[in-house]
Write a structure and sequence with these properties.
The structure holds 2 protein chains of 2 kinds. By secondary structure, chain A is mostly helical. Chain A is 72% helix and 4% strand. Chain A has one domain (9-264). Chain B contains 2 helices and no strands. Chain B is rod-shaped. The chains are: A mainly alpha, B mainly alpha.
Chain lengths: 268, 156
């Protein structure tokens, strides 16, 4: 919190929800430094750790950390196995692992106590604005969702051919009669638009709402003794409930990624 | 809440992470897991094979024991038969020997009887001569009547 500003509920929330931006040309050409740095660091640390453990992987008796990673990998693999029928090891399963682990880590940043971290960012790192949860930035969730969307279209064309894909756009799901071509196309268009939207917004909405509730409870805690007690209790409760949301949303995001890519492989 | 360049930058880091996972994280671990699965499967198969071998060996040993028992019984049977044969042969031999001894003894007895008879005959002739001499009161010319006496002796 910046103490030089007057502390009102709206300034408090606005302060917490302002990105640390870096303009590289104004308007669209702006980077949210906090989102990029946090997600980048998390990716580097998490996948570096995975790589370090996996590099020493043995087919014999595994170490505890290898067993832990194997548990994770087998969990993801079994999910993918149930949905995607093809050579999942070549791309789909590792992608699912990437999505799950990265989104989980980014969501988990929500566990950091907002106001203590704000103080740390400001007084230790000298950053006035810093949002630590990348998945509560719509740019991050859309980046993932649109990447998956593009993979979906890529695999659609790769599996069915460009002609096959266009044929499917017009001839599914209602049939190949020319009269229903517009209906089919409209239907597919809606599907192609709604998929990335729902994919990105579901994750964003959950994480953003979670963050807002933490902020509201933090605000309540500043209103007096009763507020502090209830704010602390409810904050703890919400944090515990949030453990579920963090994992669940990461899991849902991964499952949808797998489902979308698997659907792209299937012909109608 | 603006869509901005962050989206593209984030998508790029996403692409890098996917590439990294596909290339460096997934394959070694998958290889390790699959190798272990293979090792375990091989071990189970070897165990199964060992069990099967053991069963075969047990069956084979039972067979060998059965054969050995049969052979032993056969050998004992043969030995008993052979023993009986030997006993029979010896019995026969003993019988032949006994018969031979009996025959010899009989022949000896007959010879002895014959000899005794000869002796008796000679003595009888001498007695007869002496008796006749005494009866006649005179000396019989032994030489003159020898032929007659011989005949007489032969008739006895």
């Amino acid at each position: 919190m910046s103490t030089e500003h007057e502390l009102t509920p709206s300034s408090y929330i606005t302060h917490h929800l302002t990105f640390n931006t870096q303009s590289v040309g104004g308007g669209f050409w702006t980077l949210n430094v906090d989102t990029l740095v946090v997600s980048g660091l998390l990716g580097l640390i998490t996948f570096g750790l995975l790589w370090w453990i996996v590099r020493g992987a043995t087919a014999g008796v595994p170490t505890k950390r290898q067993a832990c990673v194997e548990l994770l990998v087998e969990f993801v693999d079994s999910q993918v196995k149930g949905i995607f029928h093809g050579n999942r090891h070549a791309f789909v399963a590792p992608t699912a692992l990437t999505v799950f682990v990265w989104v989980l880590m980014m969501n988990a940043m929500d566990f950091l106590p907002v106001d203590i971290m704000a103080w740390v960012y400001e007084h230790v790192f000298g950053l006035e604005h810093w949002r630590a949860v990348p998945t509560s930035d719509i740019n991050a969730t859309f980046a993932l969702a649109l990447s998956v969307w593009m993979l979906m279209i890529f695999f659609s064309i790769k599996v069915k051919g460009l002609g096959g894909w266009i044929h499917e756009l017009f001839c599914a799901p209602f049939g190949g009669h020319p009269l229903v071509w517009p209906a089919n196309f409209l239907f597919n268009l809606i599907e192609y638009v709604s998929k990335p939207l729902s994919h990105a917004l579901r994750l964003f909405g959950n994480m953003y709402a979670g963050e807002i509730i933490f902020l509201l409870l933090g605000m309540w805690a500043a209103t007096g003794l009763a507020g502090t007690i209830f704010g602390a209790l409810l904050g703890a409760g919400w944090a515990i409930f949030h453990i579920l949301i963090v994992v669940l949303q990461a899991f849902i995001f991964m499952m949808l990624t797998v489902v979308y890519i698997a659907m792209a492989h299937e012909s109608h | 809440m603006n869509i901005n360049l962050t989206l593209i930058a984030q998508a790029m880091s996403f692409a890098i992470l996917i590439w990294f996972t596909v290339k460096f994280v997934w394959p070694p671990l998958l290889a390790a897991i699959e190798n272990r699965q293979k090792t375990i499967a091989d071990g189970l198969a070897a165990g199964e094979r060992g069990k099967h071998d053991l069963e075969m060996a047990a069956k084979r040993s039972a067979e060998i024991i059965r054969e050995a028992k049969e052979k032993a019984a056969e050998i004992i049977g043969n030995a008993e038969k052979r023993g009986t044969e030997i006993v029979e042969a010896e019995k026969a031999k003993a019988k032949v020997e006994g018969d031979r001894i009996i025959t010899g003894a009989q022949a000896e007895i007959e010879q002895e009887v014959f000899r005794a008879r000869e002796q008796l005959r000679t003595q009888v002739s001498a007695i007869a001569l002496a008796g006749a001499g005494k009866i006649l009161g005179r000396e019989i010319d032994a030489k003159a009547h020898n032929d007659l006496l011989e005949k007489l002796v032969a008739e006895i």
